[in-house]
Amino acid sequence: MSWRKAWALGWTVCAAWAQAADLSAGDYQLQPRAIAAQTWVIEGAVEDFSRANGCNIINTGFIASDAGVLVINTGPSWLYGQQQRAAIARTVPQKPSRVVALNLHPDYFLGNQAWADLPLQALVGSMAGMQAEGKAYEDNLYRLCGDWMKGTEFTPARQSLSPGRQDWGGHRLEWVRLEGHTGDDLLLIDHSTGVLFAGGLVFADRVPTAPHARLLPWMRSLRTVQGWIDQGLVRTVVPSHGPVHTGRKGVDQTLDWLQWLHERLQNSAAQGLDLSEVLRLPIPPRFAAWAAMPAEYVRSVTYLFPHYENEQLARPSVPAATGR
């Protein structure tokens, strides 16, 4: 099964579990919250995509300085991008001057359309992914969220961003490329405030999504982030999904989930279970109350398990021992 077909199947399951409420599109009620000096987050619902939340499940952010306003992620729709822009204008006097998407997933950049007059930046791999998948993302979110998506046309980042350090009006920023959640995961450390915008590598109180995931590289990346926190380089973590927090909470939760999921899929393939049998296995209590459960578990297993089956089939068989 291709990842496109698997992901479409997962979305169908997701839609079946979506909330029944179908609010008319209108006001996202975006409320920027200061989390550090000149640094704000606009928090999305800790849920899965639905009409009830307008597909607004992502944390976006912005940093204001004498160099202008740096906007981080633009949300799931043109409407979100417009209201994000208005919320920033209400909050700070500085004018936005650049917009960065931390990866290729739809809620990181479908609001770019409202920011098209500014530099729209991302890593090269994310830019390619936006171009390749943008129309499919657009169609999926129209189906899931209806009127909230009116007028939205995917607008990929147009300018590549290179990892490294830079001064942003007195903020000592460091852009870091890791991988695992996608092929190109961009993170931002503000060494002036100790804030980490962790992108899709970190989830908190929510099941991680995995449409482009490779679990082992993802786990290695999270151990790198743990090191930053343990060294005191990072104090406040902004996951793209889930509550902002201090310390290792989200990193540890995400790593725990990935290690468990990897072992479940590996062991299930070794035992010869089929997909339906894996989906019926019990979920450990420590994960059961997380947002987007069980829909995200179903999507992840549907996408990832065929890879584990193929790896198991590719392993050389061990001849049975023979007696003399």
Describe this structure in a few short sentences.
By secondary structure, the protein is α/β, with parallel strands linked by helices. 38% of the residues lie in helices and 20% in strands.
Write the layout of secondary structure elements.
Blueprint (H helix, E strand, L loop, with lengths): L2 H15 L15 E4 L2 E4 L17 E6 L2 E5 L5 H14 L4 E5 L5 H4 L10 E3 L1 H22 L13 E2 L3 E5 L2 E8 L6 E6 L4 E9 L11 H16 L5 E6 L3 E2 L2 H22 L4 H5 L5 H4 L6 H20 L10
Parallel strand pairs: 4-5, 5-6, 6-7, 11-12
Antiparallel strand pairs: 1-2, 2-3, 3-4, 8-9, 9-10, 10-11, 12-13
Helix pairs in contact: 1-9, 5-6, 6-9
Extended strand count: 13
Shape: globular
| CATH homologous superfamily (4th level) name | Ribonuclease Z/Hydroxyacylglutathione hydrolase-like
Question: Biggest sheet, strands in spatial order?
Answer: 1-2-3-4-5-6-7
Radius of gyration: 20 Å
Helical content stands at: 25-40%
Q: Kindly report how far apart the N and C termini lie.
A: 45 Å
Task: Please describe the biggest sheet, giving its number of strands, its sense, and whether it closes into a barrel.
Answer: 7 strands, mixed
Structure commentary:
It is built from 9 helices and 13 strands. It has a 7-stranded mixed beta sheet. Helices cover 38% and strands 20% of the residues. The protein has helices at 3-17, 78-91, 106-109, 124-145, 215-230, 249-270, 275-279, 285-288, 295-314, and strands at 33-36, 39-42, 60-65, 68-72, 96-100, 120-122, 159-160, 164-168, 171-178, 185-190, 195-203, 236-241, 245-246. The chain has a single domain, classed as Ribonuclease Z/Hydroxyacylglutathione hydrolase-like (Metallo-beta-lactamase, Chain A, 4-Layer Sandwich). Helix 3 (106-109) links the parallel strand 5 and strand 6. Mean pLDDT is 92; it is low at 1-23 and 320-324. With 324 residues, the protein is of the alpha/beta class.
